[in-house]
Specification:
Layout (H helix, E strand, L loop, with lengths): L5 H10 L9 H19 L40 E2 L2 E2 L6
Antiparallel strand pairs: 1-2
């Protein structure tokens, strides 16, 4: 098991602003030791031929080209809103 002692545990608890009951300190030392052992085991794995993953996908963002279009006096974009009434744009009812 990895070496972690009571002083290191108390220091970690202070950094994390945790209050550790004295009864559970021994259990925490053992548990943290097991966790560190697991990381040592992971460090021994050969990953020389493994390509790094970035985001887990090779999909790319597909978006339309941003082209400036003309507007008229109402602020209506060219062809965006086919209907208007009294200078307002008409949209389909929601409710």
């Amino acid at each position: 098991m990895s070496e972690i002692n009571k002083q290191e545990l108390e220091h970690l608890a202070e950094l994390a602003r945790l209050e550790l009951p004295e009864k559970q300190e021994k259990k925490f030392v053992e548990d943290l030791g097991k966790i560190l052992d697991h990381f040592k085991e992971l460090q021994e794995i050969n990953t020389d031929n493994v390509e790094p993953m970035i985001g887990g996908t090779e999909l790319k963002n597909v978006s339309r080209e941003d082209i400036a279009g003309g507007t008229d006096d109402t602020g209506k974009g060219a062809g965006d809103f086919p209907d208007s009434k009294d200078g307002y744009l008409k949209v389909p009812p929601v409710f």
